[in-house]
């Protein structure tokens, strides 16, 4: 704990020790031990699945539930040689410690630091998604009824083509770069990006999409309010011979009606899951405004399954430190949100969670092997443990069937003549 900067990490540096928390910590300890027993996780012995180094773990769990579990890991109070397995088993047993309710925040469009992308994903600089070559696609057309409740009312049932990629057969570390490039290519294919396409990447999360689109002879506008990413993108634009324009946004998303240009396609990577409901509606409305008739939207995002609902608090560490607006929407909810925009019509879905999770594993292992480089770049021990925990948590959520990964395409329908 002496190495924790209290100004940067106040919740990590200060263990909650109020009287009521201490009383609840005993119960938290017994519940955690029972959950580990039910999950088949050992706490002692040479082959222990996890080791508790400080009793502060139980004070944190008593105070903040899953967030406390994560913050205790960030503080170095417990460790595991197989963190994704431990988290997956706890999730599969339904471990859901009570915590003080913390409201979800608003989308802030923060991007992963580029240096972290390099250490986790390599020079491809693609954040999480991977599509390996060994998946077998199966396609079916599904029909979704209009939402039964809420403000979103589709006049007609929604029909969409869903392709599911089977899990990759053999995944090796050398496959990582190709799998990430294939994921970018798949997203651009779904947006019908090719020679002459005018593409908007908003809000941008990585230079990878723009670089791949330029290689297809497209012209790209990238928009972001993240200063570090904007600086990286401007360096790319200086070598792109006019094919890339960087737009620094004053806020997370463009203000509705302020964009005067029209685009053939709009893409989003790792953005939708981080958007609160208002931000998602604004983003979709912006897509509708800036697309030419017949233009395409393509997005890649994580989606929730029904089983996530009682375990949604497991995501609190993402909301607290990485994406305050993180929402566990289902694929159906995302599709209905798109369809709720008068001009947008969902066209197709690619479900590829089995590939995404293997990409996460490779990125986590790569980052774990480059922690010295991360430290040299200024990422302290707490941040490094946070990064490892969030990668392991997403991996566990996917393997436990609580999250899935999808790419969704939609088109802007031409307005009918009156």
TrEMBL record:
One matching Pfam family: CMAS
Source organism, top-level taxon: Bacteria
Protein name as annotated: Cyclopropane fatty acyl phospholipid synthase
Native source species: Corynebacterium pelargi
């Amino acid at each position: 704990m002496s190495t924790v900067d209290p100004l940067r990490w106040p919740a990590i540096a200060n263990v909650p020790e109020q009287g009521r928390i201490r009383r609840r910590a005993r119960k938290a300890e017994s519940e955690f031990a029972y959950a580990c027993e039910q999950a088949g996780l050992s706490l002692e012995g040479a082959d222990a699945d996890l080791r508790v180094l400080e009793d502060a773990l139980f004070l944190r769990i008593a105070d903040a539930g899953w967030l406390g579990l994560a913050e205790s890991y960030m503080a170095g109070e417990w460790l595991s040689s197989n963190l994704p397995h431990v988290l997956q088993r706890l999730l599969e047993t339904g471990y859901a410690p009570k915590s003080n309710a913390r409201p979800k925040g608003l989308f802030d469009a923060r991007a992963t630091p580029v240096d972290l992308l390099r250490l986790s994903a390599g020079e491809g600089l693609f954040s999480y998604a991977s599509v390996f070559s060994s998946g077998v696609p199966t396609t079916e057309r599904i029909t979704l009824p209009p939402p039964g409740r809420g403000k979103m009312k589709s006049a007609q049932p929604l029909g969409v083509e869903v392709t599911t990629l089977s899990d990759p057969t053999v995944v090796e570390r050398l496959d990582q770069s190709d799998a990430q490039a294939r994921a970018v290519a798949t997203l651009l294919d779904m947006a019908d990006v090719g020679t002459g396409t005018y593409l908007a990447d908003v809000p941008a999360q990585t230079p990878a999409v723009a670089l791949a689109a330029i290689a297809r002879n497209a012209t790209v506008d990238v928009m972001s309010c993240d200063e570090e990413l904007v600086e990286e993108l401007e360096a790319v634009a200086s070598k792109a011979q006019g094919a890339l324009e960087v737009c620094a946004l004053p806020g997370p998303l463009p203000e509705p009606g302020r964009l005067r240009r029209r685009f053939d396609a709009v893409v989003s990577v790792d953005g939708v899951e981080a958007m609160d409901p208002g931000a998602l509606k604004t983003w979709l409305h912006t897509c509708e405004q800036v697309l030419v008739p017949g233009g395409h939207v393509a997005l890649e995002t994580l989606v929730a399954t029904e089983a996530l609902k009682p375990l949604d608090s497991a995501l609190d560490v993402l909301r607290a430190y990485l994406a305050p607006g993180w929402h566990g929407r289902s694929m159906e909810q995302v599709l209905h949100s798109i369809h709720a925009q008068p001009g947008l019509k969902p066209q197709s879905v690619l479900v590829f969670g089995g590939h995404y999770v293997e990409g996460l594993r490779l990125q986590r292992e790569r980052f774990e092997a480059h922690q010295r480089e991360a430290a040299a770049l200024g990422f302290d021990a707490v941040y490094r443990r946070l990064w490892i925990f969030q990668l392991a948590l997403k991996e566990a959520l996917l393997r436990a069937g609580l999250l899935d990964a999808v790419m969704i395409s939609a088109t802007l329908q031409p307005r009918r003549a009156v």
